[in-house]
Amino acid sequence: MKCGSLCQRVVGGLIFTMGSVLSLNASAQLTIGRQIIEPVRPIIDSVPVDVGSVRDVLETQVTQGVESRFDTLANIPAPQFSVPSPLSLTSPSGTLVLKEVKAPDGFLALEREWLVVGSEADKTHFSHPDITIESSRHLAAIDQWIYRLKVNTSLDELSQIRNSLPETLKTQVGRNHIYLTQGMGAAESAKIKNNNQDMLANITTTDKPGVCQIPVRIGMIDTSIAQNHKALEHLVIEQQPFLPQALPTTQVHGTSVASLLADNMRAGSHLYNASVFYTRNSISQGATLLSLIDGLNYLVAKQVDVINMSLAGPENSVLANVIQKISEQGVQIIAAVGNEGPASPPLFPAAYPSTIAVTAVDNNHAIYRWANQGNYVDFAASGVSVEVAHPDGTTSRETGTSMATPFVSARYACLFRASSNPAQALVTLRDQAIDAGAPGRDPVFGVGILH
């Protein structure tokens, strides 16, 4: 099996390619090939391998990784990927607030709702008898407008709605998909409460070895968080909601993720949270794509070093467009690979080329059994039965790729602050990763495990 054409990227004057380093050229231009199908070419493959003591990554290793992935999939008896059943959510007064449907692509979305990213002048293209503009606003982060459209059944297919738009907008339209948090699955949803004060003290100690000694600015897209928890008291926290007030919400997932970030952040560091998730049931939280994009826009305006996205869902051209624009501004997005198992298709935003994708391992470095696998996986970190803060003031143990992602986000933010160079931060991450699984990069652990 041969590797495809090389993916080239320039960051901070360095030219990166998969498998080899071409040159150092301060005048080179940023060119990232658009991902169409697997194998996904992740951002970490773009890091120059001649900086520091990072091992060489050769085309043969990439090829072996692809073959290893297919060998792994061949040993799985049946697909493990599944999408929850759609729900309809109403306000306390009984008014329908949100109706999920299963879209033709197999993922959840809002019924007959589409998003388009474009200019203010593009509004004229939506004067169609089967299209209603539900909302529109300017996104300062990418200097574009986003339109939420409601279409009649006759246009509720990607091909049909694209045909109603000019060529300039055909690739900038996508369903208002639903994305899910990536905490533990239903089979492992029993929460283990810890009231032991020694355990609480353990996750609130900020002067332990390994904690970043530089104040950082981290953004997160999640549920709301319990800001008054002792594990978060050393941080400057700001959060803003981006979902209809009538929808039920929870603080459990967001507080867990925030505490794992806080565990590696120096006192006085800033944590910005975009609260976007509504409660679907006792173990599932969902966020519309529009809420995600509004949250990203808010976090970029706060000039964060990194954005933690402990969530996953379908590929969407609107999300791809927004994330690419944000990446070009030097804001790194780090995302959970997903908890749908080794047979799952790639989930997003983790599988986008500019995103760092994180999987989960247990204390014995064994891969989390429900973690997604694929060539887009960049790093592994502890995410099985990890100690986290609970909104009621105690602690609990949680599992999932959601719980592994914050460690990598906090580590990257610290390295970025130390060097003021995204490329150097990524190189150092690769230096620090411990190889696991098949020698070299592989589709299970990525580059390796970060401690």
UniProtKB/TrEMBL annotation:
Signal peptide per UniProt: 1-28
UniProt keyword annotation of Transmembrane helix present: no
Record keywords, A-Z: Hydrolase, Protease, Serine protease, Signal
PROSITE patterns per record: SUBTILASE, SUBTILASE_SER
Active site: D222, H253, S402
Span of domain Peptidase S8/S53: 216-445
Gene Ontology molecular function, alphabetical: serine-type endopeptidase activity
Keyword Lipid metabolism: no
Superkingdom of this protein's organism: Bacteria
Pfam families the record matches: Peptidase_S8
Family under the similarity heading: Belongs to the peptidase S8 family.
PANTHER family attached to this UniProt entry: CEREVISIN-RELATED, PEPTIDASE S8
Protein name (Swiss-Prot/TrEMBL): Peptidase S8/S53 subtilisin kexin sedolisin
Organism: Alteromonas naphthalenivorans
